[in-house]
Amino acid sequence: MKKITMQQIADHLGVSKFVVSKALSGKGGVNEQTRERVIQAASRLGYFNQKNGYVKNVIPSGTTLPAPAGKQSVLVLMPNIRFQNKESLYWGRLLEGISRELEVQQLGMIIVSEPRGDNFINILNPDGILGMIGVGQIATSFLLEVHRIGLPMVLVDHEDPLIPSDTVFANNLDGMARLTTHLIGLGHRELHFLGNSAFSRSFRDRWIGYRSALEEYGLTPQSSDDPMLQLEGIDTGAYGDEMHGWLERRRKTGALPTALVCANDSIAIHACTVLSEIGVNVPGDLVVSGFDNIEDAARNTPAITTIHVPKEDLGQRAVRKLVDRLAHPDAPQEKIMISVETVYRDSTAEPQQTGR
C-alpha cells in the first residue's frame, strides 16, 4: 500500500504541509474548523491506518506486560461517570469490571472523568501508562491525542470513525430487536421509540434494532424527525418537560401508542413517572420497556421489562483486549460484541385495547 504523506493531505485540502503538521500534532496556530478538516481528510486517505502515521507505541512489539514491581497503570477515560447517580450505576458497574480485571493483571488505574487540555496531555506522557480504556462518548480530539502518541486504546460502548481502535460493545441491535419482537408477539401494533439515535453508537444500534423488528412484521416506525427520537439531555434528564408535553397531548387526543420502547432504563423510568402523573396506568393502559437493567429498573413501580447488559463483563473484556493488544500490537483490530438477555417484568403485558 502506498504511503500517505502530510504533503498529500495538504494537496488534497489546498493548504500547506505546515498547517497539516500543526493540525495532526495538536499544536496551536490552527483553528478548530481547519483542524477537523485535516483530521477527516487524513482519515479518509488512510493516514491513521499506517504504521508510521503517528508516533510508535510506547510498548515495543513483542514486549510482555511488565512485572508489578513498577506498578504500571492503565488510563481509564470515562466522561459519562459524572452523570451517575448512586443507585443507578451503569458506568460504575462497568468501572468495577475494569478495576477487578486490572487487579488480576496486577496493573494500576488512573481514572480521568473530565479531560481538559494540557492536564490530559500531561497524563498521557508518563512512561508508566501502558494504554487507555475509553468508556462511553469521548470527543475525537482527545482520542486523537491518545492515537498520535501511539498509546494503545480500547473503546467501550463507543467507536470513532476517524480513529481506528479495538472496541467492546453490548449487542444492542439484537437485544432491542428481540425485545421489540416480544412486544409485537404480545399483540402490540402501535409502538413508539423514545431516545436519541445521535446520542451514542449504542442508542443508534438500539433504534436500528427496534426499526428492523417493526419492518419485519410490516409495521411502520415513526419518522426520523419525530420529537421523541430527538430527546435532549439524555444524561441529565433535561428532556423531561418535552416528554411530559408529548405524552399529555397524545393522551388528550386519544393518540397514545400501546407501547413505549425506551432507549435506556432511565428514560423508561421517567416515562412511567410522567404517565402516572397524567393518569395513564402502566401496564394496563400502556406498556413501557427499557434497556441496560440498572438497579432502579427493578425497584420501579411497576418493575421495568428491560435488556440486561453485563456491565462488569464489558469492563473486564476491555482490559483483556488491551492486554492482548499490548502483546500483539500488529494484530487486526477487533470489534467485540457481548451478548445481552431480556428481563421480563411487570411494565409489559398484552395490550388492553387492540386496534386502538
From TrEMBL:
Domain (HTH lacI-type) ranges: 4-47
PROSITE patterns: HTH_LACI_2
Pfam families: LacI (PF00356), Peripla_BP_3 (PF13377)
Keywords: DNA-binding, Repressor, Transcription, Transcription regulation
UniProt cross-references to Gene3D superfamilies, sorted A to Z: 3.40.50.2300, lambda repressor-like DNA-binding domains
Cytoplasm is among the record's keywords: no
UniProt GO MF annotations: DNA-binding transcription factor activity; transcription cis-regulatory region binding
Protein name: LacI family DNA-binding transcriptional regulator
InterPro entries according to UniProt: HTH_LacI (IPR000843), LacI/GalR-like_sensor (IPR046335), Lambda_DNA-bd_dom_sf (IPR010982), Peripla_BP_I (IPR028082)
Source organism (scientific name): Paenibacillus mellifer
